[in-house]
Design a protein that fits this description.
Elements (H helix, E strand, L loop, with lengths): L6 H11 L4 E3 L3 E2 L23 E4 L3 E2 L5 E2 L14 E4 L2 E3 L13 E3 L4 E2 L14 E4 L3 E2 L21 E4 L9 E5 L11 E5 L4 H6 L7 H6 L2 E5 L6 E3 L14 E5 L6 E3 L12 E5 L11 H6 L5 E5 L8 E2 L18 E5 L8 E2 L12 E5 L6 E4 H4 L7 E5 L6 E4 L17 E5 L6 E4 L1
C-alpha cells in the first residue's frame, strides 16, 4: 500500500490487477428472476479453504435493488478469507461473517442491514468496515451494533458509513478503554478540522454529541476559527458531565476558555491543558471563572506565545464572595511562554495551594518572580520544583511589600529542587 493511500483505495487498485485466489460473483437478475437461484450453495464452499477474496459487488438488479436472501451458512467454510465485498443485498443476521476470523476488509456498501450478530465482534483482525449507503431497520445508525463490539476491533483503521459525513475531517481518533495511553479513559480526539464554524454547523455533529456525554478525555486539535472551547454548539449544559481531562492543541485562533459566565462547567474536570494556542492571552480571565474550576488538579500551558498570565485574581465585582481557590491543584506546568510576566495577576490572598506537589516552569523569559511570600507559605506539600531557562527571573520567592513581616519560608516536603540556566537569578528569597 502506497504511503498516504487508504485501505479502501488500495483494495480497489489491487482488485483491478490481482491474479491471486479470488472468487467473483457476477450476475444480472431480471425482474421476474428467482433470487434463490443466485445463492451460493453450502456445499460449493467446502473446497475453498484457501480463498482469500470474495467479491459480490457486480450483481445488478433491474427490479428491487435489494435481494431477499441471507448469507449462506457455507460462508463459514471460508476461514482464510481476508476480503469480503457484498453489495445490493438484504442481509439479516449474517452469523457466518463472525466465523471468518482472518477477515481484514468487509464491505457491505448499499446493503440493507438488520441487527448485526454478537459474533461480528470476533473479527478482531478487521481493518476496514465499509457501510456506505447502507440502510437499516433502526432509526439510529449505532443501534445496529451489538454492545461492546466496536471496542474489540483494536486494528480498525477505516470506518465508512452514510451517517458519518465530516468532509474536511482529517483524523477522528477513538482510543478504546484498555489502550496504552488512556487505560482509564473513554477517549475522544477530534483534529484536523479546517474551519470550526463548519464543524459546529455540521448536521453530523449529532454523531459526536452522544460520545461527549460519556467522554472522560477530550482532545481538540488543529481547529481554525475556534475562539472559545465551550461554545453553545458543542454540547448542552450537561453534555460533558463525565469529562475529567481536556486538552487543546494547535488552535491558532483560540482566545479564551469560555464565552459565557452562566455556562455550567464539567463538574468532574480535573486536568486542563493548552499547547500551541498562539492567541491565548490567559487561561482564567476572572475570579468567577476560577471558582467554577475549583476541582482542578492539573494545569499545563505550553508554547502559547501571547499568554501574559494564567490566573486573574483581580476582584472586579464589589459583591464578590471571597473564598480560597485552587485548593485541589496538584501539578502546575508552564513551558515556552515568552510573553508571560506573571503567573497570577492580582492579589494572591485568595490562593490556597496547600495541595500543590509539582511546579514545572521552563522558558518563561519575562517572568521575574515565581511566588510571593503569601503563596510560598501555603506550599506545604510541594515536592518538586523545577525552574529552567527563565532569562529575566530574579528570585523564586519575593515579599509583597517591605512593610510586611513574614515567617521563614519553608517547603517541608520538598525533595527535588532544580534551578537551571537562570542568568539573572539574584536570590532564592528576595526582600
Amino acid at each position: 500500500m502506497a504511503k498516504g493511500e487508504t485501505i479502501k483505495n488500495a483494495v480497489r487498485n489491487w482488485m483491478s490487477r490481482a491474479d491471486g485466489v479470488i472468487l467473483e460473483a457476477r450476475k444480472t437478475l431480471e425482474d421476474d428472476a428467482d433470487p434463490n437461484k443466485s445463492r451460493c450453495q453450502k456445499e460449493s464452499f467446502k473446497g475453498m479453504t484457501a480463498l482469500k477474496v470474495f467479491d459480490q459487488s457486480d450483481i445488478i438488479s433491474k427490479g428491487d435493488p435489494y435481494f431477499s436472501r441471507k448469507l449462506e451458512p457455507g460462508f463459514s467454510y471460508l476461514t482464510s478469507l481476508r476480503t469480503l465485498i457484498i453489495k445490493n443485498c438484504r442481509i439479516a443476521a449474517p452469523d457466518a461473517i463472525g466465523k471468518m476470523k482472518m477477515l481484514e476488509v468487509l464491505s457491505l456498501a448499499n446493503c440493507k442491514l438488520l441487527d448485526l450478530p454478537q459474533e461480528i465482534g470476533e473479527l478482531t483482525n478487521i481493518r476496514l468496515l465499509d457501510l456506505e449507503d447502507c440502510h437499516h431497520s433502526r432509526q439510529k445508525f449505532n443501534a445496529i451494533f451489538p454492545p461492546n463490539v466496536i471496542s474489540r476491533w483494536s486494528r480498525l483503521e477505516e470506518l465508512y458509513s452514510k451517517g458519518f459525513s465530516f468532509p474536511e475531517l482529517e483524523v477522528f481518533k477513538i482510543a478504546i478503554r484498555g489502550s496504552v495511553h488512556h487505560k482509564q479513559s473513554n477517549y475522544l480526539e477530534v483534529c484536523g478540522w479546517v474551519n470550526a464554524k463548519k464543524f459546529f454547523a455540521s448536521p453530523s455533529l449529532a454523531c459526536v454529541k452522544p460520545l461527549l456525554k460519556r467522554t472522560q478525555y477530550l482532545k481538540l486539535s488543529s481547529f481554525e476559527g475556534l475562539r472559545t472551547i465551550f461554545p453553545h454548539q458543542l454540547a448542552d449544559r450537561d453534555g460533558l458531565a463525565g469529562l475529567k481531562t481536556l486538552e487543546i492543541s494547535d488552535c491558532a485562533d483560540l482566545e479564551y476558555l469560555i464565552d459565557s459566565e452562566e455556562w455550567k462547567m464539567p463538574p468532574k474536570l480535573k486536568s486542563l491543558g493548552f499547547f500551541k494556542c498562539e492567541k491565548l492571552i490567559n487561561v482564567f480571565a476572572s475570579l468567577e471563572l476560577m471558582q467554577r474550576f475549583d476541582g482542578l488538579e492539573e494545569v499545563s500551558v505550553d508554547s502559547c506565545g501571547a499568554l501574559e498570565y494564567v490566573f486573574n485574581l483581580k476582584i472586579e465585582k464589589p459583591a464578590f464572595e471571597e473564598k480560597k481557590m485552587l485548593s485541589h491543584l496538584r501539578e502546575l506546568a508552564l513551558c515556552d511562554l515568552p510573553a508571560m510576566k506573571c503567573i497570577w495577576d492580582g492579589p494572591t490572598r485568595l490562593l490556597s495551594l496547600d495541595n500543590l506537589q509539582i511546579a514545572d516552569i521552563q522558558n518563561c523569559n519575562k517572568l521575574k518572580v515565581l511566588f510571593d511570600t503569601c503563596v510560598a507559605q501555603s506550599l506545604c506539600q510541594l515536592k518538586k520544583l523545577l525552574v529552567k531557562g527563565c532569562d529575566e527571573l530574579e528570585t523564586v520567592v519575593a515579599k509583597e511589600s517591605q512593610r510586611v513581616t513574614v515567617d521563614i519560608v519553608v517547603f517541608p516536603q520538598l525533595v527535588e529542587l532544580s534551578l537551571l540556566y537562570l542568568p539573572n537569578l539574584a536570590a532564592f528569597l528576595l526582600g
